[in-house]
Amino acid sequence: MSTLSKTDLDAIAINRIIEMAWEDLTPFDAIKFQFGLAEADVKALMKKELKFSSYKLWRKRVEDCKTKHLAKRIEGIDRFKCNRQRAISNNKITKR
């Protein structure tokens, strides 16, 4: 992995990266911005951490999803998460 090594990622960070990778509206650029992992690094992490069948489902989903890459996004989508999604983990805002 490029910017962060495997030892720099704790279980919480790995779980958050996996969660962000599964979200349709979260582009790979957001993961790179927050964790410093390029798309190839995220794919390698997902392959290592997920069951093979889950990884195959995720890869198919990512290939068909136009919102995972900023260049393919429909104009007007300018957020990283769904506006109906509750507060995300690692957020400084307290949950009420």
TrEMBL record:
Source organism: Flavobacterium alvei
Organism domain of life: Bacteria
InterPro entries to which the protein is assigned, alphabetical: CHP03643
Protein name per UniProt: TIGR03643 family protein
NCBIfam families, per database record: TIGR03643 family protein
